[in-house]
Amino acid sequence: MRIQKTQFSLLAGALVLALGLAAGIQQGVRAYSDSIYTKLSVFNQVLNIVTSNYVEEVGVDSLLDGAIEGMLDQLDPHTTYVDPERFEQMQERNRGTYSGVGIEFDIVEDWLTVISPLEGGPSYELGIRPGDVITKIEGESAFGIKTDEVFEKLRGRKGSPVHVTVRREGEPEPLEFTIIRDNIPIKSVPYTFMLEPGVGYVRLARFSATTSDELEEAMQMLEKQGMKELILDLRGNSGGFLNEAIEVSDKFIEGGRKLVYTVGRIDGSSEEYFSTGRATHERFPLVVLVDRGSASASEIVSGAIQDWDRGYVVGETTFGKGLVQRQFPLKNGGALLVTVARYFTPSGRLIQRDYSDKEEYLMAHRGDEVAMDSTKLKDRPIFYTAGGRHVYGGGGVTPDVVIHVDWSQSDLQRELERDRSYFDYANHYIGSRHYSWPGTFETFRKEFVVDDAMLNDFNSFIEKRKFTVSIDSLKAEYDDVARGIRREMARNLWGKNERAHILMEADPVLPQALGLLPQAKMMAEGNIPAQEPGLVEITVSMGPEKETKAEEVLEPGAPQ
Asked: Comparing C-alpha atoms, which of 362, 368, 468 is closest to residue 415?
């Protein structure tokens, strides 16, 4: 929005006057108010000079947004201004739902391509499949569509229709679908399954308004399948609602235990939160997976479980985001997120790590630093769990077993993934042959084999895409190639939960987690294992030459 110079001067002057009058109501702070008034007057003067004299015409809105961001930059990294568009997206994620057609998509060579229909959503119910290309929306070509245009055209009011035309591999003619938009859940638990008999796995991706309910549903489902031990995966979970973190922790920790506490300056910001004892699940062995991307609410859960000796924490030291933000809606539809408190684990560990260098703080994760150079732990304070085990403070949650994974791929695998070769081949194979698996997913997982004929067929398919690779190169990396084909076949035939199950077979952290379950069982029974002499760090190399090595990295010092 443009504002004429005279109009802007009057508006800005009125704003300054109003702020100055409001600030000067109390006589005891008159000098302080005068100082603010002077600075706001200078700000108004600078703004007028820039808008009147700058070499190019500038928008007042962008200048004012920049001024707000500059002011907040003097504070911590998490006190931020959220513009209206981002605020709406944030609310959507936190609500755990939106209204639309229910697909995960990507723009592939300028075409809107379905990566996966969301199970139970309107697209899924109509039979839209992974690999389908949406060529038209309401009769208009979707070629060259941008991501924001997809949201604009496919999302909308619940119950409203949208017509799409689909090109599908193996179908001679386009398919026409009228999709009735519906509420689409944004899953906090994107997938869950039995890793092996008796061992359940739950992936918890975020802490939204529906997280504790989703986790409860997942755990009940796994218990019906015979779950006696659980691996809870919080890797990459950047957090969310504090109350949901407390609800999740409450499912595992007996009643009357402090789960987390906050310390702040204003009324209501210093609080203690306790478990209720309402958990209806048996006290099964528990291993929690974390990494450098686990933050905030994830750190509340993993910190409470570790401090109360309820389970083992495995992976990388977490991000270290221990500041509590309160949300203040603004008149323009945006919001101000203001840090009002810091939070601590039950043993007294401050989760927040140092952010004096904000650029380093936001770009580098402490988990990587600790996993690659664990001797730095010698400078960190030691705390004690309820059972007397050593745990480390100084920012983030340091796992009981640190696992550093070198996720680097071979050049061939990077190229195959970048070209979407596995995804497209599975769509082609299933679509062109109208292929279906005669049994269940479990039999597919155990019995489906990528044989020489399929490997040659895959090689021919990617060569037609002007991607030349020798069959010998594919055979040299057979395990990775076969798994890539199997996972995308599973996605197309069943869905992303089954794709994830295939993918997790190669996760190098899981064998370490499974190996800790006997000790986790002792812990669940109240028999705290003897304190290890120091952290154990496991380094796993991926790629064609896989290697695992473990070593003790630190002898704990005296408490600080």
From this structure: 468
Taking residues 442-457, report their average pLDDT.
Answer: 96
Q: Is residue 170 classed as helix, strand or coil in its secondary structure?
A: coil
pLDDT in tens, 327-372: 899 988 889 999 999 999 999 999 998 888 877 776 655 444 444 3
Residue count (the chain): 560
In the block, which residue shows the tokens 């101000």?
336
Please give the mean pLDDT across all residues of the chain: 84
Question: Which sequence positions are flagged as catalytic?
Answer: 296, 307, 321
pLDDT at 199 over 90: yes
Cβ atoms < 10 Å from Cβ of 454: 16
For 410, other C-beta atoms within 10 Å of its C-beta total 16
Among candidates 447, 427, 445, which has minimal Cα distance to 498? 445
Question: What is 356-395 written as a DSSP string?
Answer: SSHHHHHHS-HHHHHHH-GGGGGGSPEEE-TTS-EEE-SS
Q: For Cα atoms 214, 216, 222, give the angle at the middle one, nearest 5 degrees.
A: 105
Per the rule left: phi > 0, alpha: psi between -120 and 50, beta: everything else, 466 is left
b/e per residue 456-487 (b: at least 16 CB within 10 A): eebbebbeeeeeebeeeebeebeebbbbbbbb
- Give CA–CA dist 315/317, Å, rounded: 7
For residue 8, is pLDDT > 50?
no
Rounded CA-CA distance 393/377 in Å is 9
